[in-house]
Specification:
mRNA Triphosphatase Cet1, Chain A, single chain, about 260 residues, alpha+beta
Length: about 260
Amino acid sequence: MPGRQEDKYLIPMYAMDDIREAIAPYVIVDNHIALQESNIYEIRSIYFDSFDLKDYYEKHAGLQMRKKLRVRGYNQMSLESEVFLEIKWKNNTFISKDRTPVKYADVANLLAGGDMEKLLPYRKDFPNSHEKASKFLFYLKRSSRVPVNLVTYTREAYIGKFNHTDRITFDSNIRSMMFPGLDDLFEEERLLPFLERDFVLEYKSENPVPEWFRRIIRKYNLNKQAYSKYVRGVDIHYRHVGDCTKREIISMSHY
């Protein structure tokens, strides 16, 4: 299978407690140590795009095969904050990711062509870091991608009780900022909230959707939707939501 399937649902905030109660018999909290031993945490992503907003418009055009480049961090910044260079690949409804961990303090140096051997020491948990970082840099430079949108949100994460590869997340308090610098990953004051009345439920798995989740879909009349936080994080800053022109967006850029 070419990655995991990822289904998204927009659900009113007032239904969050009901959905949480409905999934409770079938899931356990995802409290991996990387998430500070909590299943509720902040996700912070700077998305890179070309000057003509190739990734943004490919999503609007509904291309089945596409990718996004981002730097992703979690929670609050510290002296030892670790972030990830990520390429998120989408092939129809299937998702895969290339992830490379790097110290936040070293990101700018790495993206500017710094010494990869020094900045990315070997780690057993990420044995192919150099290869994946090189791939990230290739796509970054080939399309002259720059930081376009910072998207931050609160995630509540669960994994399947009977199959730990199943994952359900609730994403809320979604907010964004246009044209961040690399040092803005943990910015808060300049973020603009969007989707305040709804949250995004994501079901991710390498397996077919289990019957218990199908029952929840039917009970609450959930409709699967294509929803990109990056695209909506751009749209919210402009008058024509969902239909921003290149001139409108680029005119706001400081690049």
